[in-house]
Each structure stands twice: as C-alpha cells, then as structure tokens.
Amino acid sequence: MKRTLITGAAGFLGSHLCDRFIKEGHHVIAMDNLITGDMRNIEHLMPHPNFEFYHHDVTKFVHVPGELHYILHFASPASPIDYLKIPIQTLKVGAMGTHNLLGLARAKGARFIIASTSEVYGDPLVHPQTEEYWGHVNPIGPRGCYDEAKRYQEAITMAYHRYHGLETRIVRIFNTYGPRMRLNDGRVLPAFIGQALRGEDLTIFGDGSQTRSFCYVSDLVEGIYRLLLSDYPYPVNIGNPSEITIKEFAEEIIKLTGTDQKVVYKDLPQDDPKQRQPDISKAQELLDWEPKVLRDEGLRITYDYFKNLPEERLYEDSEHREFEAFSKGV
Ligand SMILES: NC(=O)c1ccc[n+]([C@@H]2O[C@H](COP(=O)([O-])OP(=O)(O)OC[C@H]3O[C@@H](n4cnc5c(N)ncnc54)[C@H](O)[C@@H]3O)[C@@H](O)[C@H]2O)c1
Hints:
Blueprint (H helix, E strand, L loop, with lengths): L2 E5 L4 H12 L3 E6 L18 E5 L14 E4 L6 H6 L1 H22 L2 E7 L26 H21 L3 E6 L2 E2 L10 H10 L4 E4 L5 E3 L1 E2 H13 L5 E4 L4 E3 H12 L5 E4 L14 H7 L7 H13 L15 H6 L2
Parallel strand pairs: 1-2, 1-4, 2-3, 4-5, 5-6, 6-11, 7-10, 8-13
Antiparallel strand pairs: 9-12
Helix pairs in contact: 3-4, 5-7
The structure holds nicotinamide-adenine-dinucleotide (NAD).
C-alpha cells in the first residue's frame, strides 16, 4: 500500500486530496496546524483505518515514522485575507516548511509535489499565462509575502530536483472553488455566495472589469493526481480557462441564488491582478487533462453545499481560531 503525506490536509484543497487518495487505496497521513484549516473538512475520514491525522506545524521539524511514497505539500495560507494577516507564517510555510518536507522526501525516497499558484505570475503582462512566463511580481507589496513564498518554493523544489535528483512536481493552481471553502476568507466566490445567503449586497473591488477563471475542485484534483503520476518535473498550469469579469460573475451569482441583491463597489486593493487565465496546453498534452465541470454545474453544487450549512456558519468570521496561540510561538 502506498503511504502518502498530505500537508494542509484540513484545508479546502487538502481535504479533497485526502478523499481522493483514500479512494485510490493509499494510506493517508494528514498534517495540519489548523491555522486556516478546519477539522470539520476531514472529520468524516477520521474513522477510516487508512487515515491518520497529525496536528503539526510544518515549519518545525517534520517526523513521520515508516515509509513514505508521496508527499503533497499543500499547507499555506491561501486567501488574501489570510496571508495579509499572517504574512510571516505565509513566508515561513513556503520557505522553511517546503525545505523541511523536501528533506523528508529525500530521506524517505518519496516523490514530492508542491501547490504553487498562478500568483507566481503576479499582475501578468502576458495573457493567457503560459508556464514559460516569468511573471510580474512586486516583492515588497502586500501580496509579496505570498507570491514570493511560492516563487521560492518552486526554486528550492527545482534545486532539490537538480542537485539531489529528487523526484519533484510543481502544480501552478489557478483559482479553484467548491465545497469546504471558508465563506469569509476574502476569496471572491465564497464572498459573493456568503453575501447572497446573508442577504447582503455583493461587494466588487474596483470597477469589476478584472477577470478571473474558476476551476471546480474535482477537476483540479484530477489534474494534480495525473501530474503526480507523470514524470514531468517542471511547472504545469492547472485551471479552467473559461474567463469571466468579476462584474459578470456577480450577476451570475445573483441569478443562481435567486436573490435581489445589488452590487456595491469599493476601491481595488494594491497589486490586484487585472487578468487571470491559464494556458493549459501543457496539461492537455502531457496529462491528457482538461476541466470537465462547467461553471453552471460547479456553482450549483457549491451553492447547495453552503445553503445547507447550519445558519451560524454563514456568520463565522475570518478570525483565525488558533492565530493567537500560533503567533506567540513565532
Ligand atoms: N484554492 C485555490 O484556488 C488555490 C490557488 C492557488 C494555490 N493554492 C494553494 O493550494 C494550497 C491549499 O490552499 P487552500 O485553498 O486549500 O487553502 P486553505 O487555507 O483552505 O488550506 C491551507 C491549509 O494549510 C494549513 N497550514 C497553513 N500553514 C501551515 C503550517 N505551517 N503547518 C501545517 N499546516 C499549515 C492550514 O491550516 C489549512 O488547513 C495552498 O498552498 C495554496 O497556496 C490554492
């Protein structure tokens, strides 16, 4: 049986990866310090004989007894609200966390994949973004802590691959959505759905002409699974190229939720990317992968998930439950 370590396992993507690897018959070792994650995302897996959970901060030394075949490093604050609030932890998990886990992969002879991001392209000057584009990133702006942590993460991963011959994979994830996102973490899709469900107006930052491309989570997980099993060590974009302006997207959400909310406009945050669309030719060619779930369908599943949550969860704030305790240790 393959033994697979997944970091960030109690988060949105990590929890869906745990489901997939359990389904594929792996023994899954899930690791998370719960700084932005939520045990409710994986509580259904806790009784499973092939699932174990370690409450651990991966910026500290990581010890896992026994064999390991795969390491999926997905631990990192991922939403703008999170990484603006905890910038040092964000840099540490991208830098020290990745270094620790690469060391573990080397010691165990495990294959290693990191969750990189379209943010490595910054506010891109090339559209759509291909993997060959080096990006347009402001290292000292407010988003620099996330973008540069991810760029460093790619660099150290390639160094371990080149210098130590470690088997590594890099997935550049574009905006992904689905059940188990946090409603109030500042990402546009859950923010709109949360506002609609609470009967609030939908907030657009800027004039709404900026674009995003949203990928449904099951498509992303399939792409990651295929990339991990491939022999390609360089970055691969995984995302849905169907691009939409934020203004049109707000209208879609209002239609979906059947509410009569209005849209209100606020100032655009600094360095907010104006355009986002993955070029997925590489994934199509190398992995025979492309997204299957249309936005209509993915939004409907996601909306149903949030609509069926207990009402108090619509009001859970974005405060980090363990933030105080965690930050004292920094
Ligand atoms: N969701 C997206 O659209 C998207 C896009 C691009 C990249 N990514 C990347 O995918 C990964 C997962 O993102 P997500 O959307 O699931 O975010 P998330 O916040 O839901 O999950 C991240 C998880 O990592 C955990 N974590 C953070 N720091 C940790 C540490 N030091 N030690 C152990 N655990 C730690 C958090 O508690 C949380 O459970 C991140 O690396 C993110 O950068 C996500």
